[in-house]
Predict the 3D structure of the following.
Amino acid sequence: MDGSENRRPRRGVVIFLSLLPLWLVISTGIGLWLWNRGGENQPEQAKFKTPISAEGLESDLRKIVEIAGPRHLGSDRGHIGLKRVSAMIRSSLGPENAGYALEMHPGPTTPEGTWPLVLARLPGEGKPLAVVAGYDSREGSPGVEANGTGLASVLAIAQAMAGETLGRPVTFAFVPHAYDLDAPVREVGRQLMDQLGDVELIIVVEATGTAADLIVSARNTALLESFENRVRIAGAETICLGEDHDPASLLEELGAPAVRLSTRAMVLPSEQDDVLPGPGVHAQATAHLATLVRILAGAR
């Protein structure tokens, strides 16, 4: 033998090399099909629950009041503050942290810019319960109680409740215009109602740093029945109405089933509103708020 026969490729090797590309295509297709099919039943992204703490609330409140600063339409600094706080909300509750699939809805268009309504939803059955916080402030005020403390509290309970199973759906909503007297508050109220849809109750949270005990108020006293023996109930004339509007009253005027939940009467335009609360008291009020939301939502 001259060795030429050994240099010829064996027939089996030729067949294998010929079929290998076809097998790779087929096996890849099968793998992709199985992966996509299994993906329909993949669990929801993990939720990173953060317990409510005095330290966490104090840190968030300082970020809102001191780092973000003023949050209104009256100055460039106020515009930057609105942008910073909306980014903070998204970062705190989004997939990388609390794990919510956030809804970002453009707010009213103003000459100064547009800031979003941010919604985070927990699933359930029946009409939703909505927990709302405005993230702006009045011009000339750092907005501690209107509404830094309320915003920090709602962020904290949304983080603490991430991934929970509830009897009814809960929507945490953050709106850009609620306290700035020159902002389109009525328009953003209508937009909020459109996005919330048919809700059982809207709880507007503000001023949660003054005391540990919560106070609820509403123009429509029928809405207060769910709160009996759970929080202090105050008349609308003492807590909900003042020299100017408050967000819960505005939503009620627009036909929404809204109540105001706080630890004090509304902040009047004449108040400085620049004193940070004691972290422990703020944490107690926020923990009571989380318990109340779970009760009203029928947590399982």
In short: The first strand starts at residue 103 and ends at 106. Residues 11-39 form the longest helix (29 residues). The beta strands are 103-106, 116-122, 129-134, 170-175, 201-205, 215-217, 232-233, 258-262.
